[in-house]
Amino acid sequence: MIKILPLxxxxxxxxxxxxxxxxxxxxxxxxxxxxxxxxxxxxxxxNETYIQFIESxxxxxxxxxxxxxxxxxxKNVLVLYQGQKNSGGYEIDIESxxxxxxxxxxKKKETGPKKGEMATTxxxxxxxxxxxxxxxxxxxx
Length: 141
What we know:
The chain is 16% helix and 33% strand. The chain has helices at 4-15, 47-56; strands at 20-21, 26-31, 40-44, 75-81, 91-99, 104-111, 127-133, 138-140.
């Protein structure tokens, strides 16, 4: 019985595909202004599309240093949009990323002004840009 137990533990640990928390993402830029009107995401998988995207942001030249060259053989660029909001105090970010063999699951974190908290009265459209691992299927939660 004692000899069978290690074998049984080994078999049980190999049977189900495991989801691995993967913190190999990095947020390279966030802003309350300049995102898309509707909430959603954009996955960029090549350098040409990335350059066009950066140019579309219409940022000050001093901001371009944050957008270093991306190795698209290893990483993709993910842009998360929170959509248009009627006040300041909103933010979108990546809370976690998990990677199993079939897909990469990105859990986003959206925040807004706290109840009773003062916020600027201005139209905003928060977004964040992150580097994530390559994957065949990306799921945003």
